[in-house]
Specification:
230 residues; alpha/beta; Rossmann fold; DNA polymerase, domain 1; 6 strands; binds magnesium ion
Amino acid sequence: MDKSKIKVIGFDADDTLWVNETYFREAEHKFAQLLSSYETENKIDQELFKMEMKNLDVYGYGVKGFMLSMIESAIDLSNGKIPSTVISEIIALGKEMIERPVELLDHVEMVLEELSKKYRLIVLTKGDLLDQERKVEKSGLSTYFHHIEVLSDKKENNYLSLLEHLEIPVSEFVMIGNSLKSDVLPIINIGAQAMHVPFHTTWAHEEVSPQEDNGNYITVNSIKGVLDYL
Ligand SMILES: [Mg+2]
C-alpha cells in the first residue's frame, strides 16, 4: 500500500459502512418458513439463489429484484399453487427490508471523519438507486462524501468510466470494501489500490475462487484498521 499519491478514497456501502447481508439471510430464512410445506429450507435456498442468478441481468442488484425472485421461486416451488396471501407476505418481507433503519458498523463515523480531513471521499455502491440513496440519507454520513454513485455493477469497466467521468487518475485512487469480487479485484486490475475489510457474511455470488484472488491488496479486520495505512 502506497499512500503517497492517494487523493481520493472510494467506499463501498453495504457491509462496509452499514449492515446489509445479514438482512438478506434473515429474509431468506423467513421465506423458507413461508414455503416450508413445499420444500426443505436447503432446497428453497438453492432454488432462490438460482433464480436470483438467472434474473440478475434483468433486475440488477438490490431488494426489489430479490423480492421478484422470491415470488418467482415461490410459484415454481409450489408448482403454481402458492396462495396470494403468501405472495403478499413475501412482498411485505421485502418492504420491511427497504424500511429498516440503517445500522452503521462500528467505528465507521470516526474513520470517515478522520479520513475526510486528508482525502476526498466518495461512495461507490450497487443496488436499487432509490434504496441506496435512501440508505445514504438515513445513515447520516452524506456530509462526509463529495460524491455518491450507484452503479449497475462493479466490474472493471464500471470503475474505469466512473473514475474518468470524475477525473480521478487511477494512481490517486484507493477503494475500500468488503467484497473481493466487487470492491477489490477489479480495482487492482485497473491499476488502482484497494483494501479489503471482510464482513462476517458474504453472499455466495460475491465469493471468489483462489485462482481469481491475486492477493495484491491489504486486508484489515475492521474499518478502524484502514487508519494504519491512510
Ligand atoms: Mg459491500
